[in-house]
Amino acid sequence: MIAAVLLAVSAPSGLTWSQSRAQTTAGTARPIRPPEPAAEAGAFRHLRVLQDIASANEGNRAAGTPGYDRSAEYVSEQLAKAGYQVRFEEFEFPFFQERSPPVLAVHAADGSQQPASAGAVRTLANSGAGDVTARLSAVNLKLDAEPPAASASGCEAGDFKDFERGAVALIRRGTCQFQTKVENAVAAGAVGVIIMNEGTDGRKDAFSGQLSKLVPVPVIGIPYAFGRTLGADAQTGSITVHLAVDAVAGKRPSRNVIAETAGGGDGPLIVVGAHLDSVLEGPGINDNGSGTAAVLEAALQLAPELAQGRRHVRFAFWGAEERGLIGSRRHVDALSEEERRRIAVYINLDMVGSPNFTRYVQGPATTDDGPAALARRELAAEFREHGLNIEERTGTRFGSDDSSFSQKGIPTVGLYTGAGGMKSEKQASLFGGTAGRPFDPCYHQACDAIDNIDRGVLEQNARALVRTLKAVTTLPGGPERRNAL
Question: 81, 270, 310, 354 - which has most CB atoms within 10 Å?
Answer without folding.
Answer: 354
